[in-house]
């Protein structure tokens, strides 16, 4: 068994996240490497990809003109940017989610099983590659189903009752119309695809996850994706070439091809990460171990908000405010790190983020 400490793991993760020496060619390559870029806050997604690429690229151009990226509810049921050619694997893996069929989910969201079934049945007929605003989509669903009583549910809140359709590959984001979001049918917008076998899709995502957030346990993969722990455990058992790695006394798994990278040394890396950066959202259960001991609430805040962070050699060493440049460090920080972070702050403020 390979034995390493968190210091080695985090330096390796920084490199795998394109936050160290090697940058990605474009935002699509970033989304593929980090297995989806959190896109609940559009500006954060733009910053997260820009940090990791060799040259700027317009996210909207890739989403709505080239259509090499797709924006939809994905990992943990939150909005992400995904490579369009990976979308079929996500749909197949997300098809395992059945929470919307449980009585507790239906009661909480104020819908019945029959109403949800009617919505999902109607969507392929009412949604095409012609973008519809949420209001227009709600009206089309109501016209098709006759469920006028669902108007409020379909047009308000965080789109919870639309998420099951996204998980089934029935809708994704279209180009915004002014300040309004729109939706399109992925099979019409991106082009049709052959169904992917569910276990193969889960295994693909598990291996990709380990290549960015490993070493990890099946339970951590299940939490990151929103997969049942039993399915995550079976996936790890199926995957070939997984090595067991002892990380400060905890047994975790990692594809064997990455073992050599764990011992690679590099120059000191200081990074200012935006809110909801994938490096943090993929490791929220490990914040105590990766530098935020005693400060987890400053990073992972109420209502699911993930703060902008200061990361040094992979360790979370503080949080910062993009508008003012104020940094609040966790504990004593070397002067060299403070100077490096301040230089990044000044560059950020001078360019407007």
Structural description of this entry:
The chain has 353 residues and is α+β, with helices and mostly antiparallel strands. Among the domains are: 96-167, no CATH class; 270-351, no CATH class. The protein has helices at residues 6-16, 27-33, 42-51, 59-65, 87-94, 103-109, 113-126, 134-145, 151-155, 163-167, 186-189, 198-213, 218-225, 229-238, 259-262, 278-281, 296-299, 335-351, and strands at 2-4, 37-38, 69-73, 79-83, 132-133, 172-177, 180-184, 242-247, 250-255, 270-273, 309-312, 315-320, 327-329. A hairpin with a 2-residue loop joins strand 11 and strand 12. The model has no long low-confidence stretch (mean pLDDT 94). One of its GO terms (molecular function) is DNA binding. Keywords: DNA-binding. It comes from Asanoa ishikariensis.
What structural keywords apply?
18 helices; 353 residues; alpha+beta; DNA-binding; three-stranded mixed β-sheet
SS-based class = alpha+beta
**What count of helical segments does DSSP give?**
18
The 3D shape can be described as globular
Oligomer type? single chain
Poorly predicted parts = none
For the largest beta-sheet, the strand count, sense and barrel status come to: 4 strands, antiparallel
Strand content: 15-25%
Percent of residues in helices:
40-55%
Number of extended strands:
13
Distance between the termini: 43 Å
Rg for CA atoms: 21 Å
Largest beta sheet: strand ordering: 10-11-12-13
- Rounded mean pLDDT is 94
């Amino acid at each position: 068994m390979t034995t390493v400490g968190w210091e080695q793991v985090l330096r390796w993760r920084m490199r795998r996240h394109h936050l160290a020496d090697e940058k990605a060619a474009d935002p699509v390559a970033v989304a593929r490497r980090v297995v989806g870029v959190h896109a609940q806050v559009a500006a954060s997604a733009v910053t997260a990809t820009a940090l990791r690429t060799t040259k700027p690229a317009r996210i909207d151009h890739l989403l709505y003109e080239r259509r090499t990226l797709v924006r939809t509810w994905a990992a943990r049921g939150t909005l992400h940017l995904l490579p369009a050619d990976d979308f079929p694997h996500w749909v197949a893996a997300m098809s395992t989610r059945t929470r919307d069929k449980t009585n507790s989910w239906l009661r909480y969201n104020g819908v019945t099983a029959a109403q949800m079934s009617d919505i999902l049945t109607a969507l392929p007929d009412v949604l095409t590659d012609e973008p519809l605003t949420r209001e227009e989509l709600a009206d089309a669903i109501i016209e098709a189903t006759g469920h006028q009583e669902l108007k409020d549910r379909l047009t308000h809140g965080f789109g919870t009752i639309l998420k099951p359709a996204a998980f089934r590959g029935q809708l994704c984001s279209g180009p915004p119309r002014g300040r309004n979001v729109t939706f399109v049918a992925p099979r019409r917008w991106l082009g049709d695809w052959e169904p992917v076998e569910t276990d193969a899709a889960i295994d693909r995502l598990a291996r990709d996850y380990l290549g960015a957030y490993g070493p990890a346990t099946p339970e951590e993969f299940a939490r990151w994706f929103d997969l049942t722990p039993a399915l995550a455990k079976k996936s790890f058992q199926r995957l070939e070439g997984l090595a067991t790695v002892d990380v400060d006394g905890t047994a975790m798994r990692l594809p064997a091809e990455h073992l050599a990278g764990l011992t690679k040394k590099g120059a000191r890396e200081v990074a200012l990460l935006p809110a909801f950066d994938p490096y943090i959202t993929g490791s929220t259960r490990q914040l105590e171990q990766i530098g935020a001991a005693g400060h987890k609430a400053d990073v992972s805040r109420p209502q699911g908000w993930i703060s902008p962070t200061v990361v040094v050699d992979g360790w979370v060493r503080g949080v910062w405010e993009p508008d003012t440049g104020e940094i609040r460090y966790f504990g004593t920080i070397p002067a060299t790190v403070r100077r490096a972070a301040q230089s990044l702050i000044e560059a950020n403020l001078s360019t407007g983020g």
